[in-house]
Design brief:
Oligomer: single chain
Distance between the termini: 47 Å
Number of helices: 13
Number of strands: 23
Radius of gyration: 23 Å
Number of domains: 3
Structural class: alpha/beta
Largest sheet: 7 strands, parallel
Helix content: 25-40%
């Protein structure tokens, strides 16, 4: 996929020379003159900033190209200068498709990136970017108890670790089968996360998600840094919880940051509240970071499987082996069947906010979204709740929902999350989350939410320079620099509820 960036002073921008459309870099008025592909033409209708304008004639029924790939099919004849959006383009997606594997050429040696971040070495060999105490729960019945323990512990043990945080959820009781297994796997994976210098897990006692079974499913947990009890079996759960946290703090406060190579970074890649600029600025910029991390031997992790629909081949053609290709196809097809079996269309996306921002179809959204994965070979595919095991670009099974997928990224081992957005969101997650604006207007309007302005590449800053600056910020964040979400106390988890409730 071509990744050229706009030249200073452009009013529209076509990503690929094969494209039928360009993106308006400002509001365009009917009757004004603009240029693309070396030719000038007249705007035939008002086109809002971030929306598409036709740069070539498209006949009704023909594919409409953006990023060099189809983003849908024209439902009417489209003339040069027309506004191109949901009124004249419809998705091409229908159901499960067929894919063909093609071996990649041999990869070159990893980049000799000698940069380091100041991280925390853990007993299991992983490296954390924070040294916190996490309070988790097996079941929603003790969610508020977990919050109260964390609040009191933060007051009582302030300054001794990077903080005490509760991550409650409403599940764990009336769940069965795979649905229960999902909850158990996610909590167990969070309990072994390297950003947690200690973990307290609260149970109730009568729930389906039994504490003993949860712990048995998590062999990677450092038992010296784990406390847990069922609240039905103690007299005062708050005091017992605070005593457990104090014991964990006494261990974790001895930890010190030390130089850790970039090859040990695990970076989650996420987008939310996307707009027409996300695929031009923020997502390809994050793709540069994914490539830098992968080339250095680190692990970028891409997820949001429904937001790959329509762009599968961009990713599948980079599968490092037949095994990885087959695993990726299985995850994609399983997710499509998940929609179909629920009697839902697989293309029920983009969201109203995406559409208002200029995204017309799921294919367009997906082709912009997969750019967060850069160009590195795809080396591993994880199912929901699994953790990274290889170095290099990884695909993780999870839905597009911001909180669910970001929680899954954290559970998979992400120690920093890069979250691109064109509309903005205050949400934060257990791993430090950098919010990257696709446009400068958002960055200026929401400075309390946004950590990095990718809109600068629309205003003359080269993508290479922006990528170096963002990589510096990633390393600073991994070394302890506080994100805006952390400053705002925005830390949430959300679990994927996919089954029946008793």
């Amino acid at each position: 996929m071509t990744k050229n960036t706009p030249a200073p002073g452009e009013s529209i921008h076509a990503v690929d020379p094969r494209d039928h459309v360009a993106t308006a870099l400002r509001d365009l008025a009917c009757g004004e003159s603009v240029s693309a592909h070396g030719e000038r033409f007249i705007v035939r209708a008002d086109v809002p900033k971030g929306h598409k304008i036709a740069t070539r004639v498209v006949r009704s029924g023909d594919d409409v190209l953006k990023y060099g790939w189809p983003i849908g099919r024209a439902t009417a004849d489209i003339a040069v200068g027309d506004h191109v959006h949901v009124h004249n383009v419809i998705t091409r997606l229908e159901g499960v498709e067929g894919y063909a594997f093609a071996p990649l050429p041999p990869a070159g040696a990893p980049s000799a990136d000698t940069r380091t971040f100041q991280g925390f070495r853990r007993k299991n060999g992983r490296a954390g970017t924070r040294n916190e105490i996490w309070v988790l729960c097996t079941v929603g019945c003790v969610a508020n108890t977990a919050r109260r323990i964390a609040e009191k512990a933060n007051q009582r043990f302030a300054g001794r670790v990077d903080g005490v945080y509760a991550f409650p959820h409403p599940f764990g009781c009336s769940q069965l089968g795979d649905d229960l297994a999902h909850t158990r796997k996610l909590i167990a994976a969070l309990a072994s996360h390297p950003n947690a210098g200690g973990v307290l897990i609260l149970g109730l006692g009568c729930e389906n998600n039994q504490l003993k079974a949860l712990l048995e499913s998590a062999p990677d947990i450092d038992r010296e840094r784990l406390k847990g009890f069922t609240t039905q079996m103690v007299e005062d759960e708050l005091e017992d919880g605070l005593a457990a946290v104090e014991a964990l703090v006494e261990i974790a406060e001895k930890d010190r940051r030390e130089p850790v190579p970039v090859s040990e970074l695990v970076v989650g890649l996420k987008c939310g509240g996307s707009d027409g600029f996300s695929g031009i600025t923020a997502n390809p910029l994050v793709g540069r970071i994914a490539d830098k991390v992968a080339e250095a031997g680190g692990t970028p992790v891409l997820t949001e499987i429904p937001e790959i629909f329509g762009a599968e081949n961009v990713l599948l053609q980079r599968a490092a082996s037949r095994e990885v290709f087959d695993a990726a196809v299985a995850v994609i097809d399983d997710f499509k069947r998940y929609f179909i079996e629920a009697n839902q269309p697989i293309y029920e996306n983009p969201s109203p906010g995406n559409i208002a921002g200029g995204i017309t179809s799921l294919e367009e959204k997906s082709l912009g979204a997969v750019q967060k994965g850069g160009r590195a070979p795809l080396v591993e595919v994880l199912r929901y709740g699994e953790t990274v095991g290889r170095h290099g670009l990884t695909l993780l099974e999870a839905p597009g929902n911001d909180a669910v997928s970001s929680t899954a990224l954290t559970a998979a081992g992400a120690t920093v999350i890069l979250f691109t957005t064109g509309r903005g969101t205050p949400l934060g997650f257990p791993a430090p989350t950098l919010k990257i604006a696709s446009n400068s207007g958002l960055a200026q309007r929401k400075p309390g939410w946004i950590d990095f302005d990718a809109g600068q590449v629309l205003e003359g800053v080269s993508m290479d320079v922006a990528a170096e600056n963002l990589m510096d910020l990633v390393i600073e964040t991994a070394s302890g620099k506080t994100t805006k979400a952390e400053l705002n106390g925005e830390r949430e988890i959300a679990l994927w509820k996919s089954g029946v409730t008793l």
